[in-house]
Amino acid sequence: MAKLSQHFMVDQRVLQRVVDSARLKTEDRILEIGPGEGALTELLAQICSVTAIEKDTYLAGHVAERFPKVKVIEGDALKEKWPQFDKCVSNLPYHISKRFLLKLLQHDFKLVVIVVQREFAERLAAKPGDKDYGVVSVCAQLCCDVELLDTIPRNAFKPQPKVESQIVRLPQRKKLEKGFLDFVTLKFQKRNKLLGEKRIRDISPEEFYRLYKNS
């Protein structure tokens, strides 16, 4: 079942904490990536309309049968065209975290709550000069408030991952421009190179954006 690097969340307290963190309203349109067996989907669908994207054929059919009111899209979330949504609430497959987030930031939304590998969460919040500071840090912090919430133990999942996970909340401030993403990606190919008086790795998201607009 976890062949796509999905670890299904089975701890009801943690599931409820994820849902509570999203501050849901009945009118919210929810996008869920990788619903798995539908434990999180069940709680979301009690409050809002939900569209779930699931790559695994069996799991997509299972969720569609279990929750008739949920729109299930069978396919790769990195390739599928997404519907309009207000909030994304997901327990992400670890291997797609970076690519998913950079695609996500190029959409308009109100709020995102995702469960990711703790190491990735720390990359999102890394500050200029930190060893983990990079493209995803710059883009996430420019476009959103990055809020690291609860750390989730391994035993909250089945099968258990080898690492801890973390809940991350991202209220959006602005939409990511593709040109800016390309600009930052190019610059970070030589992260220790000077750009003006600073190394690339020491430049803040806001400074990067000013440099991009003036380029």
Architecture blueprint of SSEs:
Blueprint: E1 8-9, H1 12-21, E2 29-33, H2 39-45, E3 49-54, H3 57-66, E4 71-74, E5 87-91, H4 97-104, E6 111-117, H5 118-125, H6 135-143, E7 147-152, E8 157-158, E9 165-171, H7 178-187, E10 194-195, E11 198-199, H8 205-214
Parallel strand pairs: 2-3, 2-5, 3-4, 5-6
Antiparallel strand pairs: 1-8, 6-9, 7-9, 10-11
Helix pairs in contact: 1-2, 6-8
Key descriptive features of the protein:
215 residues, alpha/beta, Rossmann fold, seven-stranded mixed sheet, two-stranded antiparallel ribbon, 11 strands
**CATH class membership:** Alpha Beta
Instruction: Quote the beta fraction.
Output: 15-25%
Distance between the termini: 48 Å
Q: Report the CATH topology name.
A: Rossmann fold
Structurally, the number of domains stands at 1
Overall radius of gyration: 18 Å
Taking all residues together, what is the mean pLDDT?
95
